[in-house]
Amino acid sequence: MQIAKKYFTEGLIQLTILLSLIGVRVDIDSYLSGYYTPLIEINLGPSSAYTQTPFHNLRDTLDGYSVHPKCPELDHFFASRRLLDEVRNLGSPRFPTQLNAWLVHQVSATNKADGGPSTSNNTDTSSGLETPGDGARDDNEHLPDNGQEVCQTTPELGHGPCGAGACGFLKEEDDAKVKEEEEPAPLTQLAHSSTLEEESLLEGITALPDPAHHHPPTIDIDQHWSNLLSLSVTDLDDLDSLVTDTDITRAISQDVSLHDAMLNSAGAFGVAPERGEARPVTQQQRTFFRLESTGSSHSDASPGMALGLAALPFASVCNLTANESSHSALGGCLDEAVFDQINQLGLEGLDSIDTHLMGCLESIDPQVLEDLDSDSGLSLESSSGGPASPGSSEMSSSSSSYCEDECGATGYSSDVDSVPSKGIVDYTTTWSPVDLSESVWHDHSYSSPAFFNQPPVTLPHKGIKEEPLSDDDSPRLEDRDMSRDELRARAMCIPFSVLQIVNMPVEEFLEVLDGHGFSPEQVTLLRDIRRRGKNKLAAQNCRKRKLDAITGLQEEVERLQAQRDRLLREKQLTAKTMGAVGQQIKQLTRDVLARLRDDSGQPLNPERFTLQCGANGRVVVQPVRRPAVSTSTGNKTDKRKKEKKQ
DNA sequence: TGGCCGTGTCATCTC
DNA sequence: TGGAGATGACACGGC
């Protein structure tokens, strides 16, 4: 249960950080303007298709900076786009409004405590966001009544875990808006948006049960976390029931937003809802946990997995190899804790397998190796298991440097259907030298959003492929499901998985080559596996970049075409304007000259005189200078014409 | 059955 | 000099 609490808490921390980050960087476009903020790295790390640098590389850099050293601009561009997509995918676009509501509440409390003006930066943040969330806020504003009516139209608030407490928030938001219209919001409040939103989030979780009592802004966050951590086993076990009792019937008709998820999560944290339906709550819970995932979009988490898994023994979660939802539900929660366990495993136990290795080498069937070498169609992915199979491999079990889930490239993934969960589990337990007695679940696949969107592993042709076999046929089935490199490595009794070989740092890889007494064939195979694996990742990223480049170029073409059309229209308009102005000048010149008289008292002939405006502003009447001096070419032409006439 | 697409792999280049 | 990444090209399988 401690583990579950830890995961649960870490998930909350991640979600809180995520929300605060979103709230801080309300100007999403700023990410596209050249900033290279840690936020990008944070979001880029676990999910970027271009960040195939494992953690062992990131840990030696400035918090993961220089992720893509060879192409930082392009990487940044893609990372920014990815970040933008992630922010947009977080839920309905109303979440900034709700965050602002928390912020308003917090600011108000702060101001009350400080005796300062009760203002809000709601306008500032909203104006900077330019998101549809403003529209949602406007919808609330346009309601006939505030307060209770707002509660009814925002079921996630009114009937959620906090009840009137949430209404109090919105009321306060409305009040803040009224005050905001009266006096400008101080810009300095923006600087506190991150902290305020984090505190507001915590406050929203813990203080919601008591709507009449608002915690002061100086509330101890540690106390909140202590309260959260103090949830007993029964509390956690009852979370599902609590959640499913929540009445969010009205929320069914709405897109699940970040705010929806948060409020429901708050309801799960010890607030007994009054009534409700199970399905929409579960849906929102899924969204909630998706938010705290590693940036991937698990769209099909299994109902009931959200909080139920938190109470499961960790090993049980790990063994859900065929259940993608397990990863989607608690992936973000588990990752960090999982890596802690990964770090504790290490490669120390590898030294003890040399004896076993030698024994295996002696038992290698030469024919097997020959068959393997004759096939170049290596399939690294098939052995990795992919994100669809959480129990993919034990790659990260040797050290944190092998964490593929957190830092592996999220490029294109393939062969999910070829991922044999059964084979993987057996693979990790039968021949891996690493102690996996704890059944640590690591997703060592080349994590990809496409992977997460894929249905669970039970694919049709896979089912056809897995005909019932006797126990004697199981090894052959595993061999068939494993990738060729895995088979090669297994046949050569190489005590590392493909992903281990691919993702371990070069220093460790060289140490492995030197320190384990591998034969030259084994060394060659290890190098080939590593090369193929890395090249596979590189190819995936290369293709991804290519597609993104094509998309970017298409957008650029469209933009330039629009710009060209606009410039052409401006040109035409300018020409028309110039023509009109010229006509006006001519008319004015004629009028002026008609009013002027020469020495003989006759009006000036516009054909012979014109008006010239000098540099000093004086207007001077000048005789029209006819082109008396023509070019030599013109003279020649005239002469020729004359000669022809003659 | 041919075309398209995604993917893995190899060869090669560059850093 | 070797490792790693990038990328074009090719093969293969699925649709």
From TrEMBL:
Q: What domain of life does the native source organism fall in?
A: Eukaryota
Does the keyword field hold Transcription?
yes
Task: List, alphabetically, the CDD domains matched.
Answer: bZIP_NFE2-like (cd14720)
Keyword list, A-Z? Activator, Coiled coil, DNA-binding, Nucleus, Transcription, Transcription regulation
Renumbered to this chain, the Polar residues biased-composition regions fall at: 110-129
Record carries keyword Coiled coil:
yes
Which residue ranges are recorded for the region named Disordered?
Answer: 110-158, 373-402, 457-481, 623-646
InterPro entries tied to this protein:
bZIP (IPR004827), bZIP_Maf (IPR004826), NFE2-like (IPR047167), TF_DNA-bd_sf (IPR008917)
A cellular component term from Gene Ontology for this protein is: nucleus
Instruction: Give residue spans, biased composition: Low complexity.
Output: 375-401
Query: Bias category Basic and acidic residues: which stretches?
Result: 135-144, 463-481
**BZIP domain location:** 525-588
| A molecular function GO annotation | RNA polymerase II cis-regulatory region sequence-specific DNA binding
* Coiled coil start-end: 543-577
Q: Which family does it belong to?
A: Belongs to the bZIP family. CNC subfamily.
Q: What is this protein called?
A: Nfe2 like bZIP transcription factor 3
State the species of origin.
Lates calcarifer
